[in-house]
Amino acid sequence: IYGEVRNRVVPWSEGLTLAGALLAADYCGTGEPAQIIIVRDGVGKRYDVKQVLNGADIPLAAGDVVQIIAQSPAPNQ
Fold first, then answer.
1. Other C-beta atoms within 10 Å of 4: how many?
2. Which phi and psi angles does 18 have, rounded to 5°?
3. Which of 5, 10, 42, 73 might form a disulfide with 24, Cβ 3.0–4.6 angstroms?
4. Which three-class secondary structure state does DSSP give residue 33?
5. What pLDDT is stored for residue 37 in this prediction?
6. Do 17 and 25 touch, CB atoms closer than 8 A?
7. How far out from the chain centre does Cα 54 lie?
8. Spans of the chain, pLDDT less than 70
9. What is the C-alpha separation between 33 and 49, in angstroms, rounded?
10. What's the first-to-final CA gap in the chain, in angstroms?
11. Do 69 and 3 meet the contact criterion of CB atoms below 8 Å apart?
C-alpha cells in the first residue's frame, strides 16, 4: 500500500477487501484521502473515497497494489 500508512505491506488472504486492507495498513494521514486507486494487472482504477468510507467495499485480488493519495494542503491565504 502506497500512501500515508504505518504498515505498507498487507498480506493478501481470501476475502481481503479494500476496507480490511486500509484498516490493516493503519492510515495515518491528517485528513480523509483524496483518492484511492487499485492497480491490478498494471491497470489502475480509481474509487470514490466517500463511497468506500461509507461501506462500499471492494474485494482485492492477490498482487493488487493500493495507492492512497492524500488531499493537497490548502494554500496559505
1. 16
2. -60, -45
3. 10
4. strand
5. 96
6. no
7. 14
8. 72-77
9. 7
10. 33
11. yes
The H-assigned helical ranges of the chain are: 18-25, 49-53
Q: What is the pLDDT of residue 18?
A: 92
pLDDT of residue 53: 77
Q: By C-alpha distance, which of 65, 66, 29, 31 is closest to 50? A: 31
φ/ψ of 6, rounded to 5, equals: -85, -30
Q: Are 65 and 2 in contact (CB under 8 A)?
A: yes
| Three cell numbers written together for 75 | 494554500
Please give the grid coordinates belonging to residue 49.
473515497
Tens of pLDDT, residues 16-35: 999 899 889 998 888 888 89
Residue 23 C-alpha cell reads as: 484498516
CA distances to 16, 30, 60 from 72, rounded to whole Å, are 29, 11, 27
Q: In this structure, are residues 53 and 29 in contact, taking their beta carbons and an 8 Å threshold?
A: no
